[in-house]
Amino acid sequence: MPTAPGSARLPATTGLPAAVPGTRLPGTVLLAGIVGSTAYGFAHAGSDTDRLGLFAAPTEDFHGLHRPAESRVTTGPDLTLHEAVKWCRLALTCNPTASELAWLPDDLYEVRTPLGDELIAIRTSFLSAKAVRGSYLGYADQQFRKLLTRDAADPAARRRAAKHARHLVRLLEQGVGLHETGENVVRLPEPERVRELGERIADRPALAEPLLAEAAERFSRPGALPAEPDPRPAEAWLRRVRAAHWTPPVPPAGRARRAPQSTGGALGPTG
Length: 271
What we know:
- This protein is an alpha+beta fold.
- Helix content is about 40%, strand content about 10%.
- The chain contains 9 helices and 5 strands; from the N terminus they run βαβββααβαααααα.
- The longest helix has 27 residues, at about 155-180.
- It is globular, with a radius of gyration of 23 Å.
């Protein structure tokens, strides 16, 4: 398949730069970068590097009996790729993990194409007050419940608890900031403060309760986000993606393609 306008066609056997050697990509990667702890500022020696991206499957792959896979996940390296339409659906629900791909600092992008830049330009159209509250507060509450059920005598559980606690704090601060300003700040301004607070919450989960209550109260106030997302820019962008990645079928050798003949609006023979 030739390189589509607005795309970066990566070699199928190499994938993201130095990230997935030997892994065959499911389509044309439009946008990809480093996410997770490295993006937030939590990374330390020995931390994994998480990568997230979105790709466009060949448009003709949607025309058969079986639709192309919507996601590709690998470990070692840690890489998640979502097909363009799946990413858009996740972003319209303000899924924190998927959405951050469109809000990364410039230095964390590893693949950035013209179509990827177009998506970044419409990122605010995916946002809505209800979805941001539900996603960020909901995911933070999940982290809190994990803290309440851990085995306090297990050292490994303590390390996991610290991770759950700092992500609880991160989700609350990013979500409230998004609600109040309309901007998703992925790279935390004070990651060490969040890390230290997470350590304290890991030992005393009750410390998270006032944070959750304060966030819920701030989410209840009027903010910078609309009540509902605007799906029209995403729909138009997806149509451009499909047009850019469509390869017309080639007629069999020696057989010229015939133009369809008009029946004048009449149906053909029925029996």
